[in-house]
Amino acid sequence: MKSSRLFAALLLAAVAGPVLAECPALLQGELPKLRAKESVDLCERFAGKPLLIVNTASHCGFAPQFKGLETLYKQYQGQGLEVLGVPSNDFKQEAADTAETAKVCYANYGVTFTMTEPQVVTGEQAIPLFKQLAEQSGAPRWNFYKYVVDRQGKVVASFSSLTKPDSDSLREALEQAIASQP
């Protein structure tokens, strides 16, 4: 009986492919999904994948970037890219109601990438993900600050709010992260 379980476990491991030995510090933790009952386990969902992390705000003048972020996600998703949007009211431009945040993201801009409930992304109260981003690259200075993370959980580039999702420099950084080895 034990040998059949061992065989099944080995077979499953062979079929599943290589597993990361350790979750990068950047991705350790969970965040509640926007307008959902479940949370996203950052390591389980994003480890070993290239990732674009953006702190967002529904009432920010940069909110139309959601459309461009969704375009990037659709364009590079087949190559493994994930996008994580993290709403925040740190700069006083996020909706007070998560239903309104969800409407802006999902109804107004058609976002399909992972969005979390609003979080603190700057200062001492920042969530661990953004503390790690700040250590590697600097804290966001405004809404729609963008971090490109490679498959090992290292920030390869960060971009200000002024950098549009269709900019050549952002696309080059994403392609570099996509090309990185897990």
TrEMBL record:
Alphabetical keyword list: Oxidoreductase, Peroxidase, Signal
Signal peptide range: 1-21
Keyword Membrane among record annotations: no
Gene Ontology molecular function terms on file: peroxidase activity
InterPro entries: Glutathione_peroxidase, GPX_AS, Thioredoxin-like_sf, Thioredoxin_domain
One family name in Pfam for this protein: GSHPx
Oxidoreductase recorded as keyword: yes
Superkingdom: Bacteria
Domain Thioredoxin as annotated: residue spans: 11-179
Listed SUPFAM superfamilies: Thioredoxin-like
Family: Belongs to the glutathione peroxidase family.
Protein name: Glutathione peroxidase
Organism lineage string: Bacteria, Pseudomonadati, Pseudomonadota, Gammaproteobacteria, Pseudomonadales
